Amino acid sequence: MPFTPFHFGPGAALHTVAPKHVSFLAFCSANILIDIEPLYYMLTHQYPLHRFFHTYVGATIIMVLTALIFMLSLKLASRLKLPNLFHWQSLKPIPIWLGAAAGSYSHIVLDSVMHSDIAPLSPFSETNALYQLVPLRELHLFCVFSALAALAILGVRGLLKARHAG
């Protein structure tokens, strides 16, 4: 399903482990941009759903596009008085690029395990060696537990911060 929140779990875990180094917003944005492709093909009833942007070549383009959108938005933010939800205007280039890269490439890995119509190495190979490498239930559980781990880490950090402040 396009825009699946399951992809966000591993990104949240990665961000909580390295919050100053990986942008969770860029991670999520890259995932959403990649899934515009299958959404379009679903809405127009064209199969396969996962095509060019569900390859590593396509994901690289999405990574660059995501990072450039963030960089341009940062430049325009003060001029256009854009809202600063989630403090995105304080993001630095390296975390944006790392978040976009992690989001793009992890999306391809996770979808490669899950969907039969992906050829992640195209145009070099039409095979998908990751398909059903892990049962779908375990893949989803990994994503959910990653999100739960991220929430637990954030909770512990919040408690420690409150203790040190008080």
Helix proportion of residues, in percent?
A: 55-70%
Radius of gyration: 17 Å
Give me the number of helical elements: 6
- Count of DSSP E strands? 0
The portion of residues forming beta strands comes to under 5%
Please provide the ordered H/E string of secondary-structure elements: HHHHHH
Helix and strand content put the structural class at mainly alpha
End-to-end distance, in Å?
Answer: 45 Å
What does the average pLDDT come to?
A: 93
Q: What global shape is seen?
A: globular
| Main sheet overview | none
Instruction: Show unreliable segments.
Output: none
Summary tags:
mainly alpha
What does it look like?
The longest helix has 30 residues, at 136-165. The mean pLDDT is 93. The chain is an all-alpha fold and 166 residues long. It contains six helices and no strands.
Secondary-structure map with pairings?
Blueprint: H1 8-17, H2 24-34, H3 36-43, H4 56-80, H5 93-114, H6 136-165
Helix pairs in contact: 1-2, 1-5, 1-6, 2-4, 2-5, 4-5
Produce a short descriptive summary.
The protein is mainly alpha-helical. 64% of the residues lie in helices and 0% in strands. Helix 1 runs parallel beside helix 6 (136-165) and helix 2 crosses helix 5 (93-114).
